[in-house]
Amino acid sequence: MTPLLVLLFGIAPSTAVGTDLLYAAITKVSGIPVHAKKGHIDWGVVGWLSLGSLPASGITLLVLQDLHTSPAFEALLKKSVGVALIITAAAILWKASRRGVLSFTGGVDEVNSQNTTSLELPLKRPVILTVITGMVIGCLVTLSSIGAGAVGTVVLVFLYPRFPITRIVGTDIAHAVPLTLLAGLGHLSLGHVNFSLLINLLMGSIPGIWLGSHASSSLSERWSRPILAILLLVIAAKMIGV
């Protein structure tokens, strides 16, 4: 969303980031009750991620408050978006390759994608690494509005390999809502939110979700994920100025 607003519509990077953050918070919040009802959210992990991400987001906002009047501020955010896109593209490619390996070696991916509503396993929980991960994601999301989706899920897969994919996704969404809301409100206080643009994006998301949900069933992830990753890398190069 953010690079599209910047490159196609000429929106200032700061306004694109701030508006996209509030857009993400509003659109993701509806997913929490659904995932919570199905038992797909590990609230302990959400808490540890938030313990790192929310303070990191607040500190990043304080730094941006001192920098947002600088002539180089918009360029900084634009390059931050580019870096976040590169990280996201790498995460997408890793997930694509990982999914292929799992499916090839005996259906582990199929097992992990089951609708598991209660997972009573003696899981080892790397609390410190989870908090550190939250700090990195908090800073990245606040600077670029990118990172709470693909990056977050990949890291959770690394840290909690025995979680089914449904719990990974639900936990990531539950963590993304307070993070994007805090970061979005922080950008709002800096004057970086365009409410007219936000309303138009929300209105467009309704038919967009409908179209995407129908189109996704006919698209092969074997090709769509690498194509998406390559597209993100091209956009990242444009954002960074390569």
List keywords for this structure.
globular, mainly alpha, 242 residues
Written overview of the protein:
It contains eleven helices and no strands. It has about 240 residues and is mainly alpha-helical. It has one domain (about 1-240). Helix 2 packs across helix 9 (about 165-190), helix 4 crosses helix 7 and helix 5 crosses helix 7. The radius of gyration is 18 Å and the shape is globular.
Reading the helices and strands in chain order gives HHHHHHHHHHH
Q: What do the pLDDT scores average to?
A: 82
Considering DSSP H and I runs of 4 or more, what fraction of the residues is helical? over 70%
Total of domains: 1
Separation, N- and C-terminal Cα atoms = 20 Å
The number of strands is 0
Sheet with most strands: none
Global Rg: 18 Å
Q: What is the approximate shape?
A: globular
Structural class: mainly alpha
Q: What's the helix count?
A: 11
Low-confidence stretches: 101-123
The share of residues in extended strands comes to under 5%
Q: Which SSEs are present, and which pair or pack?
A:
Elements lengths: L1 H6 L5 H17 L1 H7 L5 H25 L5 H32 L3 H5 L14 H18 L5 H10 L5 H25 L5 H21 L5 H20 L2
Helix pairs in contact: 2-9, 2-10, 3-9, 4-7, 4-9, 5-7, 5-11, 7-8, 8-9
